[in-house]
Specification:
This protein has a domain of 75 residues: DNA polymerase, domain 1 (Orthogonal Bundle). It is built from 4 helices and 2 strands, in the order ββαααα. A hairpin with a 2-residue loop joins β1 and β2. It is 45% helix and 5% strand. 4% of the residues are buried. The chain is elongated. The protein has 127 residues and is mostly helical. The chain has a two-stranded antiparallel ribbon with strand order 1-2. The longest helix is centred in the middle third of the chain and has 24 residues. It holds the Pfam family PP1_inhibitor. It comes from Trichomalopsis sarcophagae. One of its GO terms (cellular component) is cytoplasm.
């Protein structure tokens, strides 16, 4: 750069003489891509999630077996068992009576229902 009479002038280097930025105006604003956040869990946390999922899938299958026949309207009855609510109860006796109340109209024999309840309580203890 050279200074002459208070005016600064700059010489362009030959390597940069071909550089330029071109902007095109199309009148449209591009839509921004939607971004998603993916949670990553550690191996221990993933193990707990898999264990919970396995118990929930088992629960769904067993409830389907207990209520396999259709009711008068042609639909099978849906029973919802909240595992967290079950785990929050004070004792196994309280859990058993709660489950027996939920499953009172199961289509399977009472000994199958009792076995289901005992199996569920054992699986719930592993969570």
């Amino acid at each position: 750069m050279e200074a002459g009479g208070g005016v600064l002038t700059a010489e362009r280097s030959p390597a940069r003489s071909n550089l330029h930025v071109a902007f095109t105006e199309e009148g449209k604003v591009k839509e921004r891509r939607e971004k998603f956040l993916t949670a990553k869990y550690g191996s221990h946390q993933m193990s707990l999630i898999r264990k919970r999922l396995a118990v929930e899938m088992w629960l769904f299958e067993e409830l389907s077996k207990l209520y396999e026949s259709k009711n008068e309207s042609g639909n099978s009855r849906e029973v919802e068992v909240d595992i967290d609510e079950l785990l929050d109860m004070d004792s196994d006796e309280h859990r058993k009576s709660y489950l027996q109340g939920l499953l009172v109209d199961a289509k399977k024999p009472p000994h199958d229902v009792k076995k289901f309840i005992n199996d569920l309580l054992e699986k719930a203890k592993t969570l």
